[in-house]
Input
Amino acid sequence: MHFDRAFTAVTQPCPWPKAYGGDLVAQAVVAAMRTVEGKHLHSTHSYFMRPAEIGAEVRYEVELLRDGRGYSTRQVRGYQGGKPIFVCMANFAAGGPGGELQSDMPVNIADPESLPSSADYLAGRSGGTMTDTSQDYWAHGRSFDMRHVPGPVYLTVEGEQVPHQAVWVRPFDSLRDVPGLDDWQRDTAALSYVCDYTILEPTLRALGLAWADEGLVTASLDHSMWFHRSAPIDGWLLYAQEAVSAGDGRGLNLGRFFTTDGTHLATVVQEGMIRTTSGAAR
Output
């Protein structure tokens, strides 16, 4: 199959049988961005085709489908062991004058500093399929501090069993410079990375499911993301999420990223496989 550029990256460690989906999204986004000049990424549309092996190299082949005056389009295909595991369409825009409209940030959301971190919540707790390794990963291994409203769904559904939630996210450490990327591109990749960790949780919450439930099996299926505005990813962001539909072993969820001053940065829509094999739903 034709391609114009190729890049390689290695998936990060995680305590599950397959690599984290946001890892693939972010790596594909960076591969696409490295082939475009003078335009910013404004949308991606992706499919997860096969589980990715953890700690193994992925080859991202980029096809330059179009370079116009205002827009550029790329297709990125990820291969591991010679098999396609991930495909992404990425569109870039030069921008221009136009009207301004954005979603309103949810109100009456608890301040992140008043909420327990994942590490604080999990300290001294046990249960279900959670191991010491998965507990440490949830607490410290995802590069971002995550604080849930009304509460997390690690071991049980904390708070109401409703089809919506909010998650405050903030990098544990300042984002470092990435050779070949400007700050906007680096921050876009960071949003692409973190968006997948919790986006299935509104469906889990509504169905009364927790990550550590025996018999729960999940996987990302397809993913779309739109980047509306740029802001430094160095402080708290609110990730407001809602379940749109669930059935036939799948759940569709929508999420919006906001800065603390209410700027709507990005929108995510993702469908995932959500199956229970032992009557885990409550």
Notes: The longest helix spans residues 21-33. The mean pLDDT is 95. The two ends are 47 Å apart (CA to CA).
